[in-house]
Every structure is written in structure tokens, then in C-alpha cells.
User: What shape does this take?
Amino acid sequence: MNDRLIKIAVYLLRFGLAAVFIYASVEKIQDPAGFAAAIDNYRMLPYPLIALMAAVLPWLEFACGVALLLGRWQAGAALLMIIMNGVFIIAIATAMARGLDISCGCFTTSAAGARVGAQKLLEDVGLLLGALFLYTNHTKTG
Amino acid sequence: MRFTCTHYKPAVRQAVYLVLFSALIGILANAVNPRGISIRLYAPEQFGSETLADIQPGQKPPLVDTRQIHQLLDRKAALLIDARSAEEFASGHMPAAINIPYEDLFNHLDVINGLPHQPWLICYCDGPPCDLSHLLAAELVNMGFARVAVYEAGLDAWKKNESVVVGKDKSHE
Assistant: This one.
């Protein structure tokens, strides 16, 4: 891929990932208790970690999104997005393997939100690949 | 991909700053948010899992409450099954429920064989003194249904909370 194409892809990914992560964080920031219930549904973590994650993770998503929007600390933000999406993929895959019928907790804290499943898994894989591309090419925006 | 030392060190440092910043803001914002979560060692009493997981033969079906039933019905993921007699069913039942009387189970095998496997089959009867819902749910699990639950509070609680009951003078949904 030539440098010009990479530059365009990096721009698109920066703003695309920023939009997705900021959008995903808004409702969770407003409703940490609801997000905690969504995390609890995965049956993976003990309560103190659930509470901490519910309070901090939405702000981390927001901060990473803002960092990409502003073009500051892009490498750090992309690295965190890789890690976060890796964790989300593991959580969703294990929930599916255990036959859990739960809401994803990805963009909303509502129990009637999108369910965990192959579609959510693919979305997160796509986001992870996007973040990986951004991480390895973020210096090429000039 | 080039994960050289010079490449990832600033990224890790920036990531640490972002995590620390988010932790600080997140914990402070949570503390002043009326919908915040209590950060402590043990879960508050009202904090509980609403997870419904597929069950295996021999396992006890989970209990669901009125709120969960609404959530399941909202996304068309539940089928309500009244385990009481046909006469009791006709005198009033939950909206959209079907009737499989536990005490007449073997005359309803064709209905059971036609039940879908995808939605949750929610068995109910009158309320806690009544065990027909538990008995029917256990039979359905033994017959190979993996999504079976019991609305233990039953029709009594439903009437109290919802007041919408389909009776013999109204059309069955």
C-alpha cells in the first residue's frame, strides 16, 4: 500500500474509531450502575473489579476517542483500543461458549440491548484490526 | 509490523497516562453520579446477576422476576407457559401465555413437541405455594429444552404488578 493510501486510511480510522469509542462511552458514563450490571452478566469478575471497571472503562473509552480526535497520544490511545477490544473479544467469545443469553453492554447499558453473538464478535475483531493498523501507521499522518 | 523498542515505549507511556487520567476522572465522576456504582469489597444486596444461561438436563431451571419477563417479552425472547389446569387457565392467565397443564402433561405431548427451542420457556402457576411451574419446567429440561425458567412469583404477583390478565371473556392472544 502506498503512503498516500495509508495516510487516508489512518485519517479515516482515527475519526472512525474516535466516533465509535466516544459514542460507546456516553451512556455508560451516565449510568455506571447499569454498566456494572452488564459486566456482571458475563460472570467473569468479582464485584470490586466490576465496580472499578464500570467506573473507569467508559472514561477510558472516552479519553482514547478524544485523543484520536485531537491527534494527541495516538499511539497510546490505539494501543489501549487494541487491549480493550482484545478483552471484549475474549469476554464475548467465552459468554457465547458458555451459552449466556445476555446483552453485550457494548453501546448501551440496557438489558434489552444487542445480545452477545457472532455479529458483536466480528465488530470487535474489526475494531481491533483498525486499532492495530492505526497503531502501526499513526506516524504517517505527517 | 515493527514493534521496536523506540516504537512502543512512548505508546506505553501515553497509555499509562490515559489509564491514570481515566481512573481519576472515572472514580470522581462515579462518586457524584446518582446512578454511580458503590466501589467496595462486597456487592450490595440489590446487586445481582440477571443472566440467563442455557441449562443442561438435570440442572435446576433459573427463576425470573417480573422485570426480567418484561425484558424477555420486549425482545420476543420468551414464551409464557401456564402449568395450571385448563379450567384455571380459562379463568385468567398472563397475556400471550399457552396452557400445558402439568397434571395432564401426557395429553399435551404434541404441544410440547411443537415448542420452539430459541425463546425462553417461562413456566408459571399461581404463586409460591404452587409447585406446578417447577415440576413442568423440570420435565421440559429433561425433554431436552435448554432455555427453561420459572416465574415463581406466578400469576398472583403478575396480577398485583401488572393487572393485565387475559380471562375467558377476552380473546386469547
About this structure: The CA atoms of residues 70 and 82 of chain A lie 19 Å apart.
